[in-house]
Amino acid sequence: MIKKWGLSAAALLLTAAVILPGCASKEQAPKEALKSAATKAMTMTSYEMQSKLTVNNLTIDAPAGETDGTTGMVLNMLKNADISVNGVYQADPRQTELTLVLNLKGDMAMTFNIPMVMTGETLYVKIPSIPLLPLPETIVGKFLKMDLKELAEQEGVEFNPDSLDTKKAQDLTNEVLSTLLGEYDEKTYFSDVKPKDAALPEGVEANQVVRFEVTNNNVKEAITILVNNALPKIIDILSKEEYKEMLQIDEADLAKAKEELQSSETRAEFDKSLADLGNYLTVNKFQLNTAVNKDDFPVYQDLLMDIVVKDPEQGQNVSLSLTGSNQYSKINEKPTFTIGIPEGENVITMEELQQQFGGMSTY
């Protein structure tokens, strides 16, 4: 069951992840507009961003007695739950601040608000107040300071500064995006949407909106293109020396993955699973819109996914509907950091935190 639908779900999510940074140059053809995306996005040296992901529906339709109370409680909490990230970024000197907000709904509704700051090799995370985990008042609200290089050494692994190289990550996204989009037919998967019909948020001015869409009618073809055409080429991209170092991927593992992907046994199993896909997956909607402004920068993206994953053998159907959005503003302007770099009494080290937890029995 997992093999039959897991690949399809992963394929859809992968497609969304790599297309999100898209942008266009004036009124280009939709596919060409997105193919030029990362090239322009790579010139973003600073910006403010707002991202949000909302679970509109998550239900399990199963025979009576097949789901327990814990599952029901979790589903109740996740339905209509949302996670948002607001942040500011600058490339030089490297500084990023993010505020992550998680809202859980249902009978055990709760909200987590977690500000974070990263400068160079140092990460600061504000310790939140957690209802189910009473923490000493002396540490709640303070920023936990973590030296990423020091932590890596403590874990016995070599610190990889390339993993924090935003420029290399942008280059990788560019190559993967161009390769992936090049495999899909423009007339089948891409279209222009009039900005006035794209339901853009107030304040977002778009010169062009491009839609990438997968339907229940073409999902088999879309996954086939991804697995047979795009993934082998993407593995070749990951094999480049600069990306292997950044991701710390072993070349032998990449070669093995490509060999297995193209083996006759894997192809036969994939073809069999794909032939039965209609019994396991229904795509009600999968749309990804990318809006660009008059300066050719991506200013807004939104994703709508509504699928049903079925297990006819167990008589279970899992319905998942979610929406996501990503908005950029003040691109390449002087950034304004609202949190700043934590210091003084507002900071607690890992050693101090461990000491506080060691004395929690007194609280």
UniProtKB/TrEMBL annotation:
Residues 1-24 form the signal peptide. Gene3D superfamilies: 2.50.20.20. It comes from the Bacteria. The keyword Coiled coil applies. Keywords: Coiled coil, Signal. Residues 240-267 form a coiled coil. This is Lipoprotein. It comes from Paenibacillus auburnensis.
